[in-house]
Amino acid sequence: MEVLRPALLNINGRIYRKNATKEHVYQDEEDEFSYSGADGVQCADEPCDTVHLEETEKGFRYAIDVPSVLYKYIIGKKGETKKRMESETRTTITIPRLGEEGQIVITGQQGSAVMSAVTRIEVLMEGFRRKQPFTHFLSFALNHPEVQERFLKFKEQVLDQRSQDHGVDSSIFQNPTKLHLTVGTLTLLSDLEVTKACKVLQQCQDFVRGITGEKPLLLEVSGIEYMNDDPAMVDVLYAKVQPKDGSDKLQMMADRLVEHFVSSGLMAREWDRVKLHGTIMNTLFRKDPSEEDKATTKRLNTKDREAFDARNILRMFGTYHFGEFELNAVHLSQRYSTDCTGFYTSSGTITFS
Fold first, then answer.
1. In what residue span(s) does the K Homology domain sit (predicted)?
2. Overall pTM > 0.85
């Protein structure tokens, strides 16, 4: 079925077919670049109307904005990847020096050859981009003073009454100033990509205000739930969040935001609908209190995590009320950052009213 229905990649608004092929893996060596599976992702080298090649005296030219962190993957170990692409497409690929942000320039006598090299580079970059940790995420802040206060009381009561339960200790609780809902994650590897993401977020302003009626959205944070099928072995416990009026406005907004960012090529779709959850306890925090979990029901880094027994917490605090507040913004939050309020630094923001 992978051959009949190959996966599709959205790269800068263009759709490519990802064909299943044998993947070649080269181990990292000191002071050398690693390359893994240039043949693992293929696409038809068809002309694309959305790409406009520059015609020169010697043929054709095209420049691609590429974050410098990805240069090594285009070059490959000992330059193998770059040389092979140049040979197979009969083009010349010019890459800036390491550490310098710039453009990769492809030149060749035939436009189809240049386009073939462009396609291969873009698909190769997308494959390695997906292996990079995410750097930013769209978020709804839940750190209203009332919610923070109620959360701290919840933490105090849990530790006072259930600290004897397996794996329950203060290290797995969320930082109250960083309580939030994760809408979707992004891997932005240069200032140029952050700027692009901010522009895409601004494009969402109209439909967001259309959903909210240009008014703040009154939310209720009440009840807790867990993210796997065994309450005795839990990695993530989260607070349930919903509009006070019982509408699906918050879900609609989150799904539309993801849809828009996916169509822009800046975000990969992981689920049909956004899993709205406000993390309050997470075993990832044991080793790194600043860690940000992705919205998932899968257990991540199982071997490095000690799950906790949440059965008594769910029984005693399952309907715990964390408070109500008016939500009025969507943030493009920077991972591993803190602003003057204690929340994540925002690279971009849009408001509901």
1. 58-126
2. no
Task: Yes or no: say if 257 and 183 are a contact pair by the CB < 8 Å rule.
Answer: yes
Average pLDDT of 126-151? 94
CA 114 to the chain's CA centroid: 31
Residue 186 near residue 261 (C-beta atoms within 8 A): yes
pLDDT tens-place string over residues 214-253: 999 999 999 999 988 899 999 999 999 999 999 999 999 9
Tell me how far CA of residue 5 lies from CA of 9, 103, 263, 295, in angstroms.
13, 33, 20, 27
CA 290, CA 300: separation in Å to the nearest integer? Answer: 16
Which positions ≥6 away from 140 have C-beta within 8 Å?
180, 181, 183, 250, 254, 327, 329, 330, 331
By three-state DSSP, how is residue 119 classified? helix
Which amino acid is residue 197, in one-letter code? Answer: A
3-state helix, strand, coil in the chain (%, to 5): 35, 25, 40
Residue found under tokens 């027994």: 309
Burial of 273 (0-12, 13-18, 19+ CB in 10 A): exposed
Q: 25: number of CA atoms within 13 Å, CB side?
A: 2
Distance in angstroms (rounded) separating the CA atoms of residues 127 and 149: 43
Set out the domains of the chain in order of their start, with CATH numbers: 21-129 (3.30.1370.10), 136-351 (3.90.1140.10)
Q: What is the DSSP string of 224-272?
A: EEESSS-TTSBSEEEEEEEETT--SHHHHHHHHHHHHHHHHTSS----S
Tokens 């105090």, residue located:
156
What is the C-alpha end-to-end distance of the chain, expressed in Å?
Answer: 47
